[in-house]
Design a protein that fits this description.
Helix content: 55-70%
Distance between the termini: 39 Å
Structural class: mainly alpha
Strand order of the largest sheet: 1-2
Mean pLDDT: 81
Largest sheet: 2 strands, antiparallel
Shape: globular
Number of helices: 20
Low-confidence stretches: 1-13, 477-482
Radius of gyration: 23 Å
Number of strands: 2
C-alpha cells in the first residue's frame, strides 16, 4: 500500500476533494449567471471567489489583494454598470466588508487587550454597533448602510493588529499603494487633459445629478480608479506623503514618480490636501534623524508650517481668478484657478469654502452635546439619505466632528482617544521600526488626519486603519513574520 501511495502524483495526493467539488459547482453557477445576464452578481462572485481563495492559501497576499481591490473598486463598479443595468444596491461594495469581517471576527472573539489603543478602538467599535440600532436615524437599513462605511474599516484595525507586521506594511506600500496610486494619477491626468472613457462618462451622467462636488465650474473633477473625486485626492495625497517619507529615510527610488503624483494632487484641486502635505513635510524633516518631539521642536515645526502656508497663500493670490472666469475654461485651468483662488483668498467666500466647512465642523462638535446619544451610524451618509434617513444632516467632511454627530458624546470622545493614542504609538513605531517603513506610515497618518474615517472613502479608510493596527502588531508565534 505504501508503494502505491508513494507512486501517486503529488497533486493527487494533496488534492482537496471538497474544494474541487465546490469549484465545479461554482463554475456551473457562474455560467448560469452569465446566461441569465446577472452581470453584477457574476462579477461579485468571481472577485469574491478569487480573494477568498487567496486568503485561504496565503492570508498576507489575500489581505494585500483585498486592499488593492478597494483601490480600483470604483472603476470596476463603473465598468460593470456600463455593460449591465445599474443595480439599486451594488453587491461589489459588500465584498471587502464581508472578507474583513471573516478575518476580523475570529480575532475579536479571542482578543487580548494589552494596549490602550486597542481598548479605545474596541470601545469605539462597540458604540458604533449600538448606533446601528439608533431609532433617530430612521430604519435599521440606514444603520446597516452606515456599518459598511464605518464598522468595516474598523475591522481592518484588528486585521492589522494580527497580521500587519513591518514586513507586510512594507509590502503594502511597495506593491499596492504606490504602484496603484501612480496608475491612478496617470489616469486622473488623462481624465483632466484628454477626457473620460465611455464607462466613466456613463457614470458621470448618473452621479452628477446628486454628486454636486464632482463639478468644478463646467468641468468634472478627475477621480482615477476611485469611487469619488475625494477618495482619489486622498489616495494620491497619501502616496505622495509616503514617497516623501521614503525619500527622507534614504529610499529614493520612488522619487522618480513624485512629479506625476504631485501633479495629480494639484489638479485634484483639494486645498486641504495641499495644506496637509505641507504640514506633513514640516513634520517629517526633523524626524528623519531624531524621532522625538520636544516642546521647542514642536514650536519650530508650527512656525515652519505656518510660514510655508503664508508663503503659499501669497504666491497663490497672484494666480487665482474670480470664480466666474472659471466657468468656460479647460478642466486643468478650472482646477488650478479653484486651487489658487482658495489658497490665495482663504477668508473670501467668493473663492474659499473654509468658513462654510468651519461652521459645519463646529456644528458637528456641538451636536455631540445637544444630542448626546448620537443620531445613528448612517445619519451622515449618502446611503442613509437614499434609504430614507429621517435626519437631515450631511457629513461635516471631517471625521472627528462626524463622530460627534453620529455617535454622540461618548463616541466622539472615544474617537478622539483613538486619534491621540494612534500618534503616540506612531512615534514609538518610529523609534522601533526602520524609518524606511515607519516614516512613510507616519506621513500617511498625518497627511490624512481628519479623513481617516470619512463615509464613502472605502479604500483609504481601510488602509489607514490597517496601518493603525500595525502600530500595535501582536505577533502570533504560529504565523511568523510576512
Amino acid at each position: 500500500m505504501r508503494s502505491i501511495s508513494v507512486s501517486r502524483p503529488q497533486y493527487l495526493r494533496n488534492a482537496n476533494i471538497p474544494l474541487w467539488i465546490c469549484g465545479l459547482l461554482l463554475s456551473q453557477f457562474l455560467v448560469l449567471l452569465a446566461i441569465r445576464g446577472q452581470i453584477n452578481l457574476l462579477f461579485t462572485a468571481v472577485i469574491a471567489g478569487v480573494l477568498l481563495l487567496a486568503i485561504l492559501f496565503d492570508k498576507p497576499s489575500g489581505i494585500l489583494l483585498t486592499l488593492g481591490y478597494l483601490i480600483v473598486m470604483g472603476d470596476i463598479r463603473r465598468i460593470v454598470s456600463f455593460i449591465s443595468e445599474p443595480a439599486r444596491f451594488d453587491l461589489l461594495l459588500l465584498i471587502a466588508p464581508v472578507i474583513a469581517a471573516l478575518l476580523a471576527v475570529p480575532i475579536l472573539v479571542n482578543v487580548r487587550l494589552r494596549d490602550s489603543l486597542s481598548k479605545a478602538v474596541l470601545a469605539l467599535f462597540a458604540i458604533m454597533v449600538l448606533e446601528v440600532f439608533n431609532p433617530l436615524q430612521g430604519g435599521l437599513a440606514v444603520g446597516l448602510a452606515g456599518a459598511i462605511f464605518y464598522i468595516a474599516p474598523l475591522f481592518w484595525f484588528w486585521i492589522g493588529r494580527r497580521y500587519g507586521s513591518p514586513m507586510l506594511i512594507e509590502r503594502l506600500l511597495n506593491t499596492v499603494i504606490l504602484p496603484l496610486a501612480c496608475l491612478a494619477a496617470v489616469l486622473g491626468l488623462a481624465q483632466t487633459y484628454i477626457g473620460f472613457l465611455p464607462w466613466e462618462d456613463a457614470w458621470i451622467d448618473i452621479a452628477s445629478r446628486t454628486y454636486v462636488a464632482l463639478h468644478l465650474g463646467t468641468s468634472i473633477r478627475a477621480f482615477g480608479f476611485s469611487v469619488s473625486a475625494a477618495e482619489y485626492a486622498t489616495m494620491i495625497a497619501f502616496a505622495t506623503a509616503a514617497i516623501c517619507g521614503k525619500f527622507l529615510a534614504g529610499k529614493r527610488i520612488w522619487v522618480i514618480v513624485f512629479p506625476v503624483l504631485f501633479a495629480g494632487v494639484v489638479l485634484a484641486s483639494g486645498r486641504s490636501v495641499i495644506i496637509k502635505l505641507i504640514a506633513t513635510v514640516a513634520l517629517l524633516w526633523p524626524l528623519r534623524k531624531n524621532p522625538k518631539i520636544t516642546p521647542l521642536l514642536a514650536l519650530r515645526l508650527a512656525g515652519f508650517a505656518v510660514s510655508g502656508l503664508v508663503a503659499l497663500s501669497l504666491f497663490a493670490s497672484h494666480f487665482g481668478s474670480t470664480p466666474q472666469s472659471s466657468k468656460s475654461v479647460s478642466a486643468a485651468t478650472a482646477a488650478l484657478n479653484h486651487l489658487a483662488g482658495g489658497l490665495g483668498h482663504p477668508l473670501d467666500q467668493r473663492y474659499s469654502t473654509a468658513g462654510l466647512h468651519g461652521n459645519m465642523i463646529a456644528y458637528g462638535f456641538k451636536a455631540g452635546f445637544t444630542s448626546p446619544i448620537g443620531r445613528g451610524l448612517g445619519s451622515t451618509t449618502l446611503a442613509g439619505a437614499k434609504l430614507g434617513s429621517d435626519v437631515n444632516q450631511a457629513s461635516s467632511e471631517v471625521d472627528v466632528s462626524d463622530m460627534f454627530i453620529m455617535l454622540g458624546l461618548p463616541g466622539g470622545i472615544a474617537y478622539l482617544c483613538v486619534l491621540f493614542l494612534t500618534f503616540g504609538r506612531a512615534f514609538t513605531y518610529l523609534r522601533t521600526v526602520p524609518t524606511t517603513i515607519s516614516l512613510p506610515v507616519l506621513a500617511i497618518l498625518f497627511c490624512t488626519i481628519g479623513s481617516w474615517l470619512i463615509g464613502g472613502q472605502y479604500s483609504t479608510s481601510s488602509i489607514v486603519f490597517f496601518m493603525i493596527g500595525g502600530l500595535v502588531y501582536q505577533r502570533d508565534p504560529g504565523l511568523g513574520d510576512f
